[in-house]
Design a protein that fits this description.
This protein has 201 residues and is an alpha/beta fold. It has seven helices and seven strands. Helix 1 packs across helix 6 and helix 2 packs across helix 4.
């Protein structure tokens, strides 16, 4: 399986990249098959993204990153929160991506910020963006505020979200065991039409 991680962190070291790495490592631990992980650092593509927006053509590094995202079996997208939303660099990258590139692709969304008050950015900005791009966003999104690092709770959210992404990438939801039909008092329930057909012979 091929997993691409898009990190929009700007600093070095970056808490956004740290969260991205933890999510990718959790997916790698949970997968039954080998996971080929590729990280796309948007900070290194900022100039090429700006040129693509103005002239319509990606540079070589940006073209490689766009191709990797398009061919991935799953995607982890992590952004820092700026002005109560995703960063401009993060949005610009997905603006230059082909419009059908994420259709049906499992995506785990995550964000970092200085305060827990911005955690709803996952639901009011990131989830709608990827829904518009027709991606399949996993139910658990992960937000890490400054106080979350080293605190209880973040590791559990990372594990749960990674498990959901791994299941979607593996197609396990289609292999879920069927729920047996309900029975009445231990007896098999036969529809009336079927009983009538049996009497007609």
């Amino acid at each position: 399986m091929k997993l691409v991680v898009v990190s929009a962190g700007l600093s070095v070291p970056s808490s956004t990249r740290l969260l991205a790495d933890r999510l990718a490592a959790a997916v790698d631990r949970k997968a039954d098959a080998a996971v080929d992980i590729q990280v796309v650092e948007l900070r290194e593509l900022a100039v090429e993204i700006a040129h693509n927006l103005t002239n319509g053509f990606p540079g070589r590094k940006l073209a490689d990153a766009l191709d990797a995202v398009t061919r991935a079996d799953g995607l982890i997208a992590v952004t820092p929160v700026f002005s109560a939303s995703y960063s401009g660099l993060f949005k610009s990258f997905f603006d230059v991506l082909e419009k059908d590139a994420l259709a049906g692709k499992p995506v785990l969304v995550a964000a970092t910020g200085g305060s827990a008050r911005h955690s709803l950015v996952l639901e009011h900005a990131l989830r709608p963006l990827f829904a518009y791009l027709r991606a399949v966003v996993v139910p658990t999104a992960v937000y890490a505020a400054s106080e979350d690092w080293g605190a209880e709770g973040l590791a559990a959210r990372v594990e749960r979200a990674a498990g959901e992404l791994t299941a979607l990438m593996s197609g396990l939801s289609a292999q879920r065991p069927r729920v047996p039909k309900p029975s009445a008092g231990g007896f098999e329930v036969v529809p009336f039409a079927q009983q009538l057909d049996a009497l007609r012979g």
